[in-house]
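Work Package 3 (structural annotation) set out to generate three-dimensional models for the target panel prioritized at the project kickoff. During this period the team completed the workflow that converts sequence records into discrete structure tokens, so that structures can be stored uniformly alongside our sequence database. As a representative example, we reproduce one entry of 199 residues exactly as it appears in the project archive.
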Amino acid sequence: MPDLKVEAGTGYFKTSWGEGDINPEMATVSVENKNEVVAWGALYWQYFEQLDKITPHQTPLNMKKELFIEKMSATGPVIRPVITTTELKSGDRIKVRIELRVDRDMEYVMMKDMRASGFEPEQVLSQYKWQDGLGYYEATRDASVNFFFSSLPKGTYVFEYPLRVSHSGDFSNGITEIQYMYAPEFAAHSEGIRLVVGK
């Protein structure tokens, strides 16, 4: 273990290890408090990965994110799922669909849906919305759309919003993540999606 700089008065210290320092034996951790008073601490594992290689993670919050391309037909708009072989081009209209399942009543939950840099939202104004008995605040940001729920009852909810393809290129569309603000162990995220937009 490296030399620790302990904060005077509190005894607080923090340490981290680089990629070359990690070995399988470090997966087992034991903590022993040799004092006669309560001690607090935390241990977390953080690493970096390409967003489009992230796999889904579920807790009591369970989500699925899908993208659809919308085309006009003789009978009106038709949507088809966006898959790796879907040919996208500038000007295409994309519909984002997030399906959220909650197995218990929750309060103060935030959901963040990232989007590719080559996509622009059609709805840019943040606003309070009411849908299927659920009230929430939707805020459009530079790289994501954020949803805030003061109350999230048990059930299944579907959120949709439109985007426009604005640039050609190879993009990571990011992930959708959700977290219970006062119990961060209740968190989930969708899988990452890679998108290629032709000229």
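The chain has a mean pLDDT of 86.
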